[in-house]
Amino acid sequence: MANFFGEKSKVNNQTKQVFHFINEDKKIDQLSREVFKKTQIEIHYPIGYNGGSKYKNIMSIEFHGFGGKLPTGLIKSFKRGYGFTKNLKVFANYLDNELKINKISFVKTQENGIDLKAKEITLNEQTFSIINKSFTDLAKKSTQEQELESKVSLHTIFPKVIKKPETKYVSNALTTTLSKWGNNIDEFSAKDKEAIKDLFEKLSLNTNFLDPTKLSSTKQYIDNKILSDAVQDYSTLLSSTITIARLEKKWQEYLKINSWIFSSIFAQPIILFKDEAYVGGKDINNTNGKFSDYLMKNKLSDNVTFLEIKTHKTQLLSDKAYRGTDVYSVTEELSGCINQVLNQRDNFQKEYDHLKRKSKENFETINSKCIVIIGQHKSLTEEQKHCFELFRNNCRDVEIITFDELLLKIQNILTLKLKK
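^ thats the sequence. predicted structure below, dont judge the formating
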């Protein structure tokens, strides 16, 4: 008859059932588990491979209120000796060897607690679940990282008892992590992307870590990527079929995000100064105030520029000829937009002293330029194009740019960048 190997019930009364682990080949017979019947308490006594305790200091692991459904991260079988799973080996060693914990209690919802003098620690289910997830993510990483995670986790839970560990980068950790990257940007979380951006900025600006040639090449790649994305987003908006009101808002948002376009296409060091800026015009009833879609500013002279945006769907010229077959009048939308931006400039100049006194920022208005972005050039017939060019080239104080012309300018910048 084969020698017995397994758990045997040694005590079974109204209060509890007591199990022993028995391995007759190795002559092991020791307390392994207690299950209390009147209260939802179960106690494990981790077993070493050759008998005795599995850990140096941890003698027992208690579970309160789990009703037999024990937390993930702990061994539930006598065959593997109870205790912590492989993923939590470093965490268990920290509790065992560093903190010299004798008793670990897991509870459903009660508060976490630690008593280093009594050598006891209590962790609730939610907290332990977070710890287990952290170590599952770290399972394939270095022991040093897992040791640091042990200290960070317990310091977070018990900041007054466990000292804050010194934050130190573990050599080769980045190499190990990136070797598993599948070259898909979707694998990175928002936090990952922010960390990579911060690292790149620190290394490029504050150290000599990056070779200037490689840094220049990387910057060029990033610039090209930004331009390519801007062209793609612009083209998407040009094909949009949403309502005019929503579309105008979308264009305003796009140009706010890609405000670098202003400086690139207007051949001046222009920056976005304010969007939807108040430019004056209120009457005694505090109404009729004027707001510019964008107030831009020359970075060197501080001179402001007024920009009004309509949509690419806005009609430029009337469909029907005004005289004969080749004279067309501009639409109400175009003439109204021009008068609107001129009115904004006029109000701004009249109230310049008042606005400047109230502002904490520097700005000037020296024969300030007005710009209107509206419609599409390709929507015009050959006769209309001639009339449109006559009209806009005679608009002395207002520069009129169509949306498809603006796209072409951005595309030209991208083409020149790619040729470098």
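Residues 276-291 have pLDDT under 50 and may be disordered.
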